[in-house]
């Protein structure tokens, strides 16, 4: 299995290992998250020289649809929830995997990362989506970003 880009490597993983097929249905349309596959691609590119040398393009993946990053984005005022969703999260109520609410949280988190990337590029900062994702995830470890809870969802995908 060879790949010339991060996306090609990602697709190889998802197509050959079903546990990485993180796909949700939203209003009749498939939404592809592939969080665990994105993390695997990133780890392979960072840790295995033969793979990183063969992959020519490694900037096309999105951020990972996580549970901690929306918590940080919410704290920063970048991601806002409806009153109903905010109450569910603040009361530590489980949000069903593949529900509209859960898919919207994950999808909007990825979209927010893309907007952050665009704004950084406009200001001369060259970071890809995965790097921004990693920076936000690291911020989530800081106590200040835990003032409100993260959403709770039972799933193997994150």
Folded structure, characterized:
- With 158 residues, this protein is mainly alpha-helical.
- It has 2 domains: 6-54; 68-146, no CATH class.
- The protein is 51% helix and 5% strand.
- It is built from 7 helices and 2 strands, in the order αββαααααα.
- The protein has helices at residues 6-16, 35-47, 49-54, 68-75, 83-90, 100-122, 129-139; strands spanning 23-26, 29-32.
- Strands 1-2 form a two-stranded antiparallel sheet.
- Strand 1 (23-26) and strand 2 form a beta hairpin.
- Helix 1 crosses helix 2 (35-47) and helix 4 packs across helix 7 (129-139).
- The longest helix is centred in the last third of the chain and has 23 residues, at 100-122.
- The radius of gyration is 16 Å and the shape is globular.
In short:
By secondary structure, the chain is mostly helical.
Strand order of the largest sheet: 1-2
What percent strand?
5-15%
Low-confidence stretches: none
Number of helices: 7
pLDDT averaged over residues: 93
Topology, element by element:
Elements: H1 6-16, E1 23-26, E2 29-32, H2 35-47, H3 49-54, H4 68-75, H5 83-90, H6 100-122, H7 129-139
Antiparallel strand pairs: 1-2
Helix pairs in contact: 1-2, 4-7
List key phrases describing it.
two-stranded antiparallel ribbon; 2 domains; 7 helices; 158 residues; mainly alpha; globular; 2 strands
